[in-house]
Amino acid sequence: MDPVRNPYAPGAGQRPPELAGRDRELRQFEIVLERVARGRPERSMVLTGLRGVGKTVLLNTFKSMAMQRLWGTGKIEARPDQSIRRPVAAALHMAIRELAPRHRAPERIEHVLSVLKAFALRDPGKGAANWTPAIDVPAARGRADSGDLVIDLTELFVDAASVAADLGVGIALFIDEMQDVRPPDISALCAACHELSQSGGPLIVVGAGLPHLPTVLSASKSYSERLFRYTRIDRLDREAADQALIAPAAREGVEFTPGALDALYEAADGYPYFVQAYGKVVWDYAPKSPITADDVAVAAPEAEEELAVGFFGSRYERATPAERDYMRAMARLGDDPVPTAAVAEVLGRKPSSLSPARDSLIKKGLIYSAERGLVGFTVPHFGRFLRAQPV
């Protein structure tokens, strides 16, 4: 079939042609937007899940929903080696710029921009001394410039929220890879959100991260479990996975046989990224409509090869030899989270001697601590990939 008309889109954070199986999450966020706009108390949101389940896609969809309601929006991607001060300032600068044309008091906008500039200039990061934010107003004095991130972030959030409140809308700050926010910064973020929730300001934080993100937040502030609405994003059920394939194809006049859908669900296991990856390759291989189980059987090896190189292999290459040994031991124990003591037993080592490899893998985002004493792969089917590799 014509590859130019291929509707499937496997990509990092790239919205699929059919956002199937996420109606519940979309309704939840719609309620959050409506309640905040009406001045009702509402928690910020956190999406968690393995890589490839569509967290970033949902985060971007939420952002579009907020923009359609004329909210101010900004988005950052957290990095473990970077303070959130400068990225948050840039994101909120974008949000204020979206609101400014509708505000009737330019002096209010200028005040918030001056606070933003003061906040950003206290960035302790490398090269900060020679950096100036692109905000064409003088920096405020005595507001969000103490150098204490808890105080400064709280004051910035309160001032930014007040501008949105003037317009009867809100501000949404979206944070991807939230588990990578540094511990002092995540503590300050929780404290600022806590203060804002008590004052009722219309500003929410919407985060997305790996399954251990709730543990990261809880370790930072004990009240974080009440501060955020946690939503776990998982694989698609059979109906949703079929819909993700059928609907885009139907718009191109192409159909799947029931056998083809059976084979594709077995191969992709309901994970959205895999659904798109297999759908794209099968489309290119199929000679005509309807796409059959035989087409899937012919195309599947190439899809698996592409995943082995781009999705699995690129991550595997980031690991050191010691880290690879650790992951191969995990893979021998299965695909679900496994006890760290069992990994040590497979390797014939003491658990304490493996801590550096384990901690490094967690920092690299290749594994996560499911709960105390358990570790799991952040990438679905990674164990199966490792078991297929030559030792």
TrEMBL record:
Keywords: Heme, Iron, Metal-binding. Pfam families: AAA_16 (PF13191). Residues 1-21 are annotated as: Disordered. Residues 165-278 form the Cytochrome c domain. InterPro entries: AAA_16, Cyt_c-like_dom, P-loop_NTPase. GO terms for molecular function: electron transfer activity; heme binding; metal ion binding. This is ATPase. It comes from Thermobispora bispora (strain ATCC 19993 / DSM 43833 / CBS 139.67 / JCM 10125 / KCTC 9307 / NBRC 14880 / R51).
